Amino acid sequence: MSSCSLNSRGKGNRNNRLPYYKEASFTPYWLSKDTTELKDFHTIPSFSLVSQKGDTITENSFEGKIYVTDFFFTSCQGICPQMTSNMKIIQDEFENDNEILLLSHSITPRKDSPQMLKAYAQKKGIDDDKWILATGNRIDIYELGRKGYFIEKDLGINKGPNDFLHSPNFVLVDKEKHIRGIYNGLNSNAVQQLITDIKTLKKEYL
User: Fold this and answer.
1) Is 4 annotated as a binding residue?
2) Which among 159, 170, 175 is positioned nearest to 193, based on CA atoms?
């Protein structure tokens, strides 16, 4: 089943804020960023991966950053090229903004070595300092996608650890590692909404 019809989730409409999300249902929680409820709220778990530059990246690599993440693979001939093109729109929009990073995880990490990811980055015009392409342990990446980012939201299929992970979704994460929105990375309107929401989120830190 395709999730190409998935609408963007994360539109701010309460005092120009974005909601918080803590489970795969993506039920919005409208919370103040100073509330004690956030102390035990879902955050992205710890991880250790390798970038296209061969560097080890962890959750600490995104300390103090807002970032957008997705899951792809370099040999994909289906949805991934369009996802990459739309992620590049976000890269170019925030090219000179050091607060914003992008993170794409390979779902075929055995094939997508750092060297393969580097070649893909060069082919697609990816800025290595702005947009990290990550490889690593397959089980860890799939666990992170499904239980950390809830990336397969709305696919309508319950999958196990051996099932292929594939989704067009982009996820917006704030500086405290909370999920603040999910967007269809194939939909140009959703991508523009994501750009708007990043700008809204940035205002929380002024």
Assistant:
1) no
2) 170
The SS3 of residue 88 is helix
Tell me the two tokens of residue 179.
């999920």
Domain assignment present for residue 13? The answer is no
The total number of structural domains that make up the chain:
1
Q: What is the pLDDT of residues 44-68, one digit of tens each?
A: 999 999 999 999 999 999 999 999 9
Beta pairing, strands 66-72 & 56-58? unpaired
Query: CA 118, CA 193: separation in Å to the nearest integer?
Result: 29
Residue 180 and residue 174 in contact, taking contact as beta carbons nearer than 8 Å: yes
Range of the domain at 194: 38-203
Confidence label for 13 from pLDDT (cuts 50, 70 and 90):
low
Determine the pLDDT at residue 64.
Answer: 97
